[in-house]
Write a structure and sequence with these properties.
InterPro entries: 5TMH_Lnb (IPR057436), Lnb_N (IPR025178)
Helix content: 40-55%
Keywords: Membrane, Transmembrane, Transmembrane helix
Distance between the termini: 82 Å
CATH topology of the largest domain: endopeptidase fold (from Nostoc punctiforme)
Number of domains: 2
Pfam families: 5TMH_Lnb, Lnb_N
Number of strands: 12
Oligomer: single chain
Order of helices and strands: HEEEHEHEHEHEEHHEHEEEHHHHH
CATH architecture of the largest domain: Alpha-Beta Complex
Radius of gyration: 28 Å
CATH class of the largest domain: Alpha Beta
Shape: elongated
Largest sheet: 7 strands, antiparallel
Structural class: alpha+beta
Length: 415
């Protein structure tokens, strides 16, 4: 009896799911037919398809946007996607680290483009642009030229040349107008804008905070904030086009939600423990324990020092390369290099590991202690935010050098 009841429930649930899918598909089809009927009367329509962020990958956290051009006369509905890249290109990861990644634009049917985001549970909002037929035709001609194999590639820049900024520049070039975006209450720093996309991923946020330098702590004006699709969604409906002849018109004619994003709680979440702050606090506790132990026994725990200097030095090498040998924006100057720098690995580690160099190692740690003491006092006056986990880790490194001074006490025979 119970088995029969459960079987009936399964069949009923399956039928209910099937009916629900049919109803949903019917609703979407009806909506598409309505849109199609409306646009036949309006002629060409150009819009922005803004996709919600996702935690699927680091690069999907910032959302996405593409052009849509609906041409009822030719019976075409095309999306132009400037967010394409190829993992299989030679030296892709090396070029990515150096900021030399080339993206390209691709044209595809809007239905295919939308299907990809629907399948991953990401929402799509359409902002219909308030452009004339002549302006849309001009944009369409440019896009047709841009998708040619010889023209489609461009050097990606997360802040100044990405899938969103490209579309804004095309709108401005097509219309010859400037964007009048409301400023009041829209003050944002670059770092704040980036961090808001990583609130549920503390290690991703921490890594980005280490890599980005002082320029990230300056304010981005409202137009610069449009590098993020979500900021486009916030600002563009309130934006006007100001033409050279003084005429102004709203940029957005209509807003349509194609699909809502699935709730954030349904997104795959990054493990929350240990967070960078908890990890740095644990490091500091261990450093204090080692310092007390070494001072009491009047000796140095070289193994612990070697591990800590290697970690700090390797991190410093990455930041150094990003700052001085990459095309990534806002990575130079980076004041995090005062705490994390390659010298910990290239000089500090050998002087700590090799007994013959311990006397010189004492000098290195004395200089490091003095430098970190000054940075600790001046850190609040730097033009760059030093995040708390790094500050705590810096104290652990300061303790390491202080321990060398306390244990050796300027002895002639440094062990």
């Amino acid at each position: 009896m119970a088995k029969k009841y459960l079987s009936t429930l399964k069949v009923s649930a399956g039928l209910f799911s099937a009916i629900l899918i049919v109803l949903l598909a019917s609703g979407l089809l009806a909506n598409a037919q309505t849109v199609s009927t409306e646009t036949k009367d309006q002629g060409l329509q150009m819009s922005l398809l803004i996709s919600s962020p996702s935690t699927e990958a680091v690069y999907t956290r910032y959302g996405h946007v593409a052009f849509r051009i609906l041409n009822p006369v030719q019976g075409t509905d095309i999306a132009y996607n400037y967010g394409m890249f190829d993992y299989n290109e030679p030296n892709f990861m090396l070029r990515f680290v150096r900021g030399e990644t080339d993206y390209y634009v691709e044209a595809l049917y809007t239905s295919y483009y939308v299907e990809e985001y629907l399948r991953s549970g990401r929402g799509i909002v359409e902002l219909v642009l308030n452009l004339t037929q002549e302006e849309i035709e001009k944009a369409e001609r440019y896009l047709a030229w841009n998708i040619r194999p010889e023209n489609k590639r461009y050097r990606y820049n997360i802040f100044y040349d990405n899938c969103a900024t490209r579309l804004i520049e095309i709108i401005k070039e097509t219309t010859g107008a400037t964007l009048q975006i409301p400023h009041e209450g829209e003050e944002r720093k670059w770092r704040q804008l980036i961090d808001e996309c990583c609130t549920d991923a503390p290690w991703v946020k921490f890594g980005i905070d280490l890599a980005l330098g002082a320029k990230t702590d300056t304010y981005a004006n409202p137009e610069e904030q449009l590098f993020l699709p979500n900021r486009m969604l916030d600002l563009l409906p309130r934006t006007t086009l100001l033409y050279p002849n003084g005429r102004s018109t709203p940029l957005i004619r209509d807003t349509k939600e194609w699909f809502p994003a699935k709730p954030a709680s349904m997104e795959p979440a990054e493990e929350g423990w240990p967070t960078p702050l908890l990890a740095s606090i644990a490091l500091l506790i261990v450093s204090i324990a080692v310092a007390v132990w070494d001072v009491r026994r009047k000796d140095i725990c070289y193994v612990y020092d070697s591990i800590l200097l290697a970690i700090m030095g390797l991190s410093g090498c990455v930041i150094f390369i990003l700052s001085f040998f990459s095309e990534h924006p806002h990575t130079n100057p980076n004041y995090n290099l005062f705490l994390l720098h390659p010298l910990h690995l290239l000089i500090g580690l050998p002087l700590t590991v090799v007994p013959l160099f311990h006397r010189a190692g004492f000098v290195y740690h004395f200089i490091n202690f003095a430098e970190l003491s000054l940075i600790g006092l001046a850190i609040w006056f730097l033009p760059q935010q030093v995040v708390l986990p790094l500050y705590v880790a810096g104290i652990a490194l300061w303790l390491l050098s202080a321990r060398w001074i306390l244990v050796n006490r300027w002895r002639k025979n440094v062990r």
